Amino acid sequence: MEKLLIKGGKSLSGKISCSGAKNAALPMIAATILCDDKVVLKNLPYLQDITTMFELLGSMGSEILLDENMDFTISSANLKDIEARYELVKTMRASILVLGPLLSKYGKARIALPGGCAIGSRPVNFHLDALKQMGASITLRNGYIEANASQLNGANIKFEGVTVTGTENLMMAATLAKGQTILTNVAKEPEIADLADMLNSMGAKISGAGTDKIVIDGVDKLKGTIFDIPADRIEAGTYLVAAAVTKGSITIDGINPNRLMKVIDKLRAAGAEIDYNEDSISINMKLEFPNPVDITTAPFPEFPTDMQAQFSVINAISSGTANIYETVFENRFMHILELNRMGCDISVKGNHAVIQGVKSIYGAQVMATDLRASASLILAGLCAEGETVVDRIYHIDRGYERIEEKLNYLGANIIRLPS
Ligand code: EPU
Predict the structure, then answer these.
(1) What is the pLDDT confidence band of residue 226, given thresholds at 50, 70 and 90?
(2) Looking at the DSSP assignment, which residues form a beta bridge with residue 16?
(3) 2-(S-cysteinyl)pyruvic acid O-phosphothioketal: which positions carry it (predicted)?
(4) Ligand 1 centroid to residue 50 C-alpha, Å
(5) What domains can you pick out in the chain, each with its CATH number?
(6) Closest C-alpha residue for ligand 1 atom 37
(7) Phi and psi at residue 5, to the nearest 5°
(8) Residue 259's pLDDT is what?
């Protein structure tokens, strides 16, 4: 397995661009199932999760072409198969995103039931309950979700809990349903509004995405589109933290700061100077030790769970004590044990971490357990004394495009060690 070797202690400076957002791209690739025309997606990030999603569509019969501009043309007309096999679903839970489109367009779907994962049990009951309210019959058999619906009907659905991919699945399913669907208690993440923009450009009738209530008027057919994937707010946030923990000064281009306001607020509270315009953010960290910042994760527009592990590192080298409450996933503190092996002083009880800042941390051999946990270990390596080796970095390649290249461009010293 490949590893990253990080020589710590370099202050980051310079300018980089954000890649396309993984969590916007994945539902958009699934949405191509909804029409028979070609769909062109631009600015797709080069990531393992994107490859897995293409593998899934390819296994069902989609044709995927990459041109010289690195744009992908996807043609999902007349799929020969409507199944997401366990071998793919087990490597990427977001495979569940094909359920809504398959059911809406083909009236049936067979999707391996995703199991738990490193960050929590992550059930999909909210997706299934909502699809049932639209008239789908759903059976769980041999580890698979078997869903059928000769016609999905519009419905008034209040989600039992806020779910990002659940909201996306239902929004996609409702585009071709008969009549109007009203979704409430929905997720408001920017990626929801991005998906609605793409679906509307295909002829869907969706309003309210990004607010508490989404209204979808079903249409008979969707058409092809050309769509640009927006920038990845979590990637941008991660690089801002990289600057904050290395007393750095960097600019990230191509990112809308409105998508990161809670993160920007917390970075300012940690002592960083931040400037932004409509599509770029600059950070300058002058403090020797960041101020401790308390964090409580919650659905957008609150502080994102996907930035929690990265802020653990800011707090680990801060001048005081901070509290982090993880309210979205029940097991998202796996990085803490590894951070403590690097000299951090963090204790965890349930969903609450108490982080006592220390004057310095040191390099160690550490193991990545999930995507954002891996990011936090790399950030810790950047500000640690000596060398850090991060093992199992396939987790990082699922969600960060060329992370060591981008960080090295900013002055870091990271080498990818072959298997
Ligand atoms: N939940 C249920 N039942 C459901 C669905 C969700 O109980 O049917 C619970 C989950 O177990 C969790 C909470 O609701 O405790 C929120 O989960 P959600 O469904 O919103 O998460 P998701 O859609 O599976 C997406 C992102 C995650 C991100 C979360 C929260 C994608 C592909 N994934 O996951 O991204 O952490 O929303 O913002 O969009 C990542 O990029 O590293 C990542 C994990």
Answers:
(1) very high
(2) 252
(3) 117
(4) 17
(5) 3-19+231-417 (3.65.10.10), 22-228 (3.65.10.10)
(6) 164
(7) -105, 120
(8) 97
